[in-house]
Amino acid sequence: MKRQQGFLSLATVVVIVIFAILSATLVSMFIRASAYTVNLSAIPKASALAESGLEQGRANLTEPALADRQTCAGLANLTSLPTGNFTVSPAVGINPRYAFATLSTAIASSGTPASITVTDGSVFVTGGGRVLIGREVFQYQRVNGNILTGISRAEDGSTSASHPEGALVSQYQCNMASIGNAPANNPQATREYQQGMQQPAVFAAGSGGTILRWNSPTNENAWESMSPGAYEFNAISMINYHEGWAVADTQARVARLQGNAWTLFQPSFSGNRDLYGVDAPSESEAWAVGSRQGNEFTIVRWVRDGSNSIANWCLLPCSGKTVSTSGTGSQQRDLFGIKTLDYNNDGFADIGWAVGGRDGTGSGNRGIIMVYDGAQWASSSLPPAANRIGRIYGVDAVANGNNPPVDVYFVSRSTQNNTQGKLFRWRNGSWSVVTTSAPMHSVSVIDTNNDGLADFGMAVGDNGVVYSFDVNFAVSGPISISGQDLRGVDVISTTNAWIVGNGGVRFHYDGSSFVLTGSGGSNLNGVSGVAARQSPVSSWQDVFN
């Protein structure tokens, strides 16, 4: 009997122990399941926080007011929210990335290449980004050796174009990393996203051999000198971050940016011709205009040859391109500004405008507009003589896709007196003319919705005068932002425009205010920017944690 009682007691203990173990196991499983559920619910919170960090980083890098904008190298943000926090900083690696390589295989204007082969792929951001070839914007997903893969083209409002073998492939990109933690303390989930942002750069040229660059990779949000020599520069035209042209006084002097350095060159044209205006529609062609030589116009053209020589300039007539003097007086043949457009995407201008004329006052018009039709430059009509159009200094035109442009803008002096100027527009065959309070020197316009019409524009002139206008040519101004004469303007967006002038003044317009970013030194005569026109976002990557 006692043995039976002992056995039953032992069995009872065993059963109790088994139930205890099962209970502990069930409790442990429940706790683990609860923790897993908590961790699982934290993942989307961490993802949302990382996305919010990217939004914050984009804002910090692109604030319209330069005083509020962070540099790429100095990008820093820590924000705490009820669900956790996010931190934003430059991604690991070279930041920002300012690099170029040479295109190994030509790209046609039609179709999208599966890949882009370059001479050195290691210089570019490996995880994807944006590059410029000529003026066209390409995006890629990955770099494999010397091959950029996952290509999309004609991004950021650019146009598909032909690109020759040997063209430069240009990149300026900031890669930022955003890390989201949920919750902030002892996080159950962490997500890291990286995003590439195309960076802006601005170039200005002037007397005393001055060429300046704003926002270089080693001197962000500031100006620095790139001066190649003592040429008296009058104008500048940038193609991308690593290609551009500037022209100067005295025997048709030119400078070319090819890579990271400017090279000087003096073409052998007859006579002592000053060059006043320059425009490059692509990496394959550039045009310049200047002072007349006797009764001759000065219109010169550079075409890329097999060796990509800087010396391949010719004075028209040459290479099948001609100039007609019909309808122009000999005193009208000084030219000061030029604009060209390539709308069939072969890399060469199909249409262009060169402007100038005779100085002084008097009845009627003294300005001149020469129009290029792909083969010949010839005089074109002006607004009626009652508008008193004097010497014309500036011109800009709106690209119209694969069609001829229908919206062109000009600025000039007035022939009525020496204190006034003109701002005028040609749209679909009709003229609109505004008399300004000072002679005007430069005009720049942008088309924000790609309909072939300017939605916003600016014109600048003597006595620090600025005018702005909208798509209906409703003109605002004058606003005087400086005591110096203003010589150049480049409108990149409605919240990003640059103005330069005498005394080395450099202004930035942020959509509401004109802010002086530099002054002193030589007079500045031209400005040209390279930046995203619609959105700077160039890549996105999920870094698994």
TrEMBL record:
The chain crosses the membrane at residues 7-31. Keywords: Membrane, Transmembrane, Transmembrane helix. InterPro entries: Integrin_alpha_N. This is Uncharacterized protein.
